[in-house]
Specification:
This protein has helices at residues 14-21, 56-70, 72-78, 94-99, 102-109, and strands at 35-37, 40-42. It is mainly alpha-helical.
Length: 110
């Protein structure tokens, strides 16, 4: 839409837009950010889907934690434009995000 002149702007994640724009002349992608709401950083979180009750979920989470702790995760994902800024705090859980408990999220950030 933007390259065809039908739209002036397009919003998406900075990583996605950077990949889409690539080396195209005449287009600028703004720097990504994490929103601060009432002093609490709000994290956009990607997800992985498993069949309900799958034993693979626990194993996946264990290996993901190992990759995060060792720094290997950043090595792997940096090839695709991700930086340390896109990796949420290690203690941040899906439950905390879904509950929307800003106080609990602040405790994780501190």
């Amino acid at each position: 839409m933007v390259t065809g002149g039908r739209a002036d702007v397009f919003a998406l994640t900075a990583i996605s837009l950077s990949e889409m724009a690539g080396e195209m002349d005449g287009f600028e992608v703004t720097e990504g950010f994490v929103h601060d709401m009432d002093g609490v950083m709000q994290y956009g979180a990607g997800s992985t889907v498993f069949p309900q009750g799958s034993e693979m979920l626990e194993e996946y989470n264990e290996h993901l934690a190992e990759l995060k702790e060792s720094g290997e995760l950043l090595d792997i994902i940096s090839e695709y434009g991700f930086t340390e800024a896109e990796i949420p705090p290690a203690d941040l859980t899906a439950e905390a995000l879904c509950d929307g408990d800003l106080e609990a999220l602040q405790d994780i950030e501190d």
